[in-house]
Amino acid sequence: MEESEFNFLGDEVWWTKLSFLTDLFEHLNKLNSSIQGRNENMLTSSDKIMAFIEKLNLWKTKVNQDPFKVSISYLVDFKLAEDENLCLIKNNRTMQLKFKEITLNKFWIYVSEEYPEISIKALTILLPF
């Protein structure tokens, strides 16, 4: 074997791309696993796929974002995982129906079982009103 065949192993750009693809395929694998099983149907699967697409856009925005630009996420101090969970909530049909049925405060209390961090931040903002 020639030494030149393995030169890419010393290339940081190549390792960065490999790391990116590894992370991306890990997320795709989780999505794939989550849309399989007995209790899964087309509606819940499509909700999860739409949430994943929104997460991809969120990640793209975070990567391309100007670090000196202030957004609402920074004012509320949302972490990336919380932004991702907001994508899940937004694309969940059950949550959408519940949101229409109850008041805003009650909705965030309802959400607190599954997403406590987001719920606490939302209620902290809403309580003064």
Give the gist of this structure.
The chain contains 7 helices and no strands.
Task: Kindly describe this structure.
With 129 residues, the protein is mostly helical. Residues 70-75 have low confidence and may be disordered. It is built from 7 helices and no strands. The chain starts with 11 loop residues before the first helix and ends with a helix.
Task: Present the secondary structure layout.
Elements: H1 12-34, H2 42-64, H3 72-76, H4 80-90, H5 93-101, H6 104-111, H7 116-126
Poorly predicted spans = 70-75
Give average pLDDT, whole number.
82
The fraction of residues in strands falls at: under 5%
- Give the helix proportion (percent range): 55-70%
Q: Which H/E pattern describes the elements?
A: HHHHHHH
- Label the structural class: mainly alpha
What is the CA–CA distance across the termini? 71 Å
Helix count, per DSSP? Answer: 7
Task: Write down how many β-strands occur, each being a DSSP E stretch of 2 or more residues.
Answer: 0
Biggest sheet record: none
Rounded to an integer in angstroms, the radius of gyration calculated over CA atoms is 20 Å
Outline: elongated
Organism: Sipha flava (yellow sugarcane aphid)
Protein name: Zinc finger BED domain-containing protein 5-like
Keywords, separated by commas or semicolons:
129 residues, mainly alpha, 70% helix, elongated, Zinc finger BED domain-containing protein 5-like
